[in-house]
Amino acid sequence: MLLNIKDLHVSINGKEILKGLNLGVNEGEIHAIMGPNGTGKSTLAAAITGREGYEITQGTIEYKGKNITELEPDERANLGIFLSFQYPVEIPGVSMTNFIRTAVNSQREFRGEEPLTASAFLKKLEEKKQLVEIHSKLTKRSVNEGFSGGEKKKNEIFQMAMLEPNLAILDETDSGLDIDALKVVAKGVNALRSSDNGFVVITHYQRLLDYIVPDFVHVIYDGRIVKSGGKGLAHELEEKGYDWIKEQFDN
Amino acid sequence: MDKEKDMNKVLDEVTSGEYKYGFYTDIEMDTAPKGLTDDTIRFISAKKKEPEWMLEYRLKAFKHWLKLKEPEWAHVKYPKIDYQDIIYYAAPKKKKQLESLDEVDPDLLDTFNKLGISLDEQKMLAGVAVDAVIDSVSVKTTFQDTLSKHGIIFCSISEAIQEHPDLVKQYLGTVVPHTDNYFAALNAAVFSDGSFCYIPKGVRCPIELSTYFRINAANTGQFERTLLVADDDSYVSYLEGCTAPQRDENQLHAAVVEIIALDRAEVKYSTVQNWYPGDKNGKGGIYNFVTKRGACRGNSSKISWTQVETGSAVTWKYPSCVLMGDNSIGEFYSVAVTNNHQQADTGTKMIHIGKNTKSTIISKGISAGFSNNSYRGLVRISKKAENARNFSQCDSLLLGNKCGAHTFPYINTANNSAIVEHEATTSKISEDQLFYCQQRGIDMEKAIGLIVNGYAKEVLNKLPMEFAVEAQKLLAITLEGSVG
């Protein structure tokens, strides 16, 4: 199993957000995580990637059969876990090209590979830029600085395409995107899709799932997965909203 | 919080990076006895076979220095310096007059090779002429022949005093007079060597000129003097680098740099200062008390200072521009990094006197460890300076929470047509930025290097190419172990 989360409890500043979450993702699968705001969707992404301040009080996160809860964020990334940020961060003065090159070569170094030559890197850069339809100029600008909302999200998918992770977590990548940008994001994800790779797609809306078709849909409520199903569940949620889940669960 | 602990751990590691240039070369030295009296000055002057006027200049400066008090207004703390406990002259013994590189002491050549400075013109970075100064003397100036074809004079100041006395007399002490301040007076009295450069009218210096300063001997002070004159319509780019051995005692470095730019001349002066900063606990290191000033005497002349300050235990340094000519331009670009127990009080003065004069100040301070980093700057617009413009931007970046950043900007305007803008920011390296980098597989140290270099980019971009790469590495090394 690619990702196996068992009985995960996560607290922020002593407040428990995830309260015994279980989730298994096999290679080749796409799992959608849906649910009302403030129920723990982003906390799940942060816990898997090892963000500081998210304290795991109970349970385990296994990735490729290994418990990763004690690993540093960069070690997890180097093992092939990628997060598309809900709010990508700006780094003034660091060009996107320099940033992604440092990242690509750090990951290669971790795997014991030589750094990419300048020409091989540039070739890859051009190829992936075309895939996610980002402007040439964008990679010359500082990381996310002055990018529009759509550009920032496309830039996340561009980085994913460059790094070719085994497990990609998309944290509300669709929020604030118009339909064209949404299609580009989906194109990037579908291009990476393979029998080796898995995806966890966190979203509030069903819309994205028309383009990235999930194998499973899970609903988080109050820190646990309260309902799982096939892609039909997403449509049901779209139609009925989340209230019926809340009612069901609260009773 | 744990994050903070981690961050501090990384900062610790980053900031405890080893100083690469801390070695010492055992060379036979010719030294003056410790202490400072009229006799010391006579000794130095005699060693250098100086003309009488030079000795008189020195003695006059010394007399003045005796009346002065060491300045205490800077935001730095250090134990009182015993000026009688310093050796004021130390020179590698030379057997005879140097005619070619073959005659340079192999130990000296080796020293400079270790520092990455080849004095062999064949092996040198193409396009950089070097004057190599060790302790109190210049040991070798390269590419002199190439330069003399253009009429450019580039030699040690000692040689200039002998060979070009008129030029030296005309300009020495005219930008930084011996009465200027305590350390300038001291320097005028005891300076032992340094570089001299004259670019004739209409000449664009075809290569970068560079002086490399090395302190080697123990218990000595280094007092170099640099004088750079750019005649009408000339251009020169000048670089300066410095290192010193690792020692438990503090050593004093009190230099003076004077630049004169005549009509439409342009001078770019870049420094990568990497004197030994002392150890992790603040023991040892260089006191870097330096007066640097350029005078834009000509109309439409321009002087641009770029400095990357990573070394020294204590830095007291304000490269300045006096904008006398109409339409003249002064620039100051600075990155100052302090780590462990380093202290820096640095900045600039822009004195607007001519009409339509312009100045730009970009200062980027980075503090880590227990260090203190202050920007101190003065922008003065005099009464006659119609339409003067200044833009200042002073940013401070803090790594960790035990360091300090301070800004002391002074603005003094006597002309209503002036436009003076000042922007200042203080920021901490953000956890969001670090996490973002780490999530891409970049470890904490590399992430800090990346973020800091990005922060300082505006200034690093102003450096000549050969230096920019070195400076970037230097920033990363200086901050090695500074995050946790």
In short, what is this structure?
The complex is a heterodimer of chains A (251) and B (484). Chain A has 251 residues and is an alpha/beta fold.
Please outline the helices and strands.
The complex is a heterodimer of chains A (251) and B (484).
Chain A: E1 3-12, E2 15-25, E3 30-34, H1 41-49, E4 54-63, E5 66-67, H2 73-78, E6 81-84, E7 91-95, H3 96-110, H4 118-131, E8 142-143, H5 149-163, E9 167-171, H6 179-192, E10 198-202, E11 216-221, E12 224-229, H7 232-240, H8 243-250
Helix pairs in contact in A: 5-6
Chain B: H1 2-15, E1 29-31, H2 38-47, H3 52-67, E2 90-92, H4 106-114, E3 128-134, E4 137-141, H5 144-149, E5 153-156, H6 157-163, H7 165-171, H8 182-190, E6 195-199, E7 208-214, E8 225-230, E9 235-243, E10 250-253, E11 256-261, E12 266-273, E13 285-296, E14 302-309, E15 314-317, E16 320-323, E17 329-338, E18 343-352, E19 358-367, E20 372-381, E21 389-398, E22 404-413, E23 419-428, H9 431-439, H10 444-455, H11 457-460, H12 465-478, E24 481-483
Helix pairs in contact in B: 2-3, 3-8, 6-7, 9-10
Word description of this protein:
The complex is a heterodimer of chains A (251) and B (484). In chain A, 36% of the residues lie in helices and 28% in strands. Chain A has 251 residues and is of the alpha/beta class. Chain A has one domain (3-84, 148-250): P-loop containing nucleotide triphosphate hydrolases (Rossmann fold), CATH 3.40.50. In chain A, the strands form 3 sheets. In chain A, strands 6-9-10-3-11-12 form a 6-stranded mixed sheet, with helices on both faces. A 4-stranded antiparallel sheet of chain A has the order 2-1-4-5. In chain A, β9, α6 and β10 (198-202) form a beta-alpha-beta unit. In chain A, α5 runs parallel beside α6 (179-192). In chain B, a hairpin with a 2-residue loop joins β3 (128-134) and β4 (137-141). Chain B has one domain. Chain B is globular. The longest helix of chain B has 16 residues, at 52-67. In chain B, strands 5, 6, 8, 10, 11, 13, 15, 16, 18, 20 and 22 form an 11-stranded mixed sheet that branches. A 10-stranded mixed sheet of chain B has the order 4-3-7-9-12-14-17-19-21-23. Residues 122-126 of chain B have low confidence and may be disordered. Chain B contains 12 helices and 24 strands.
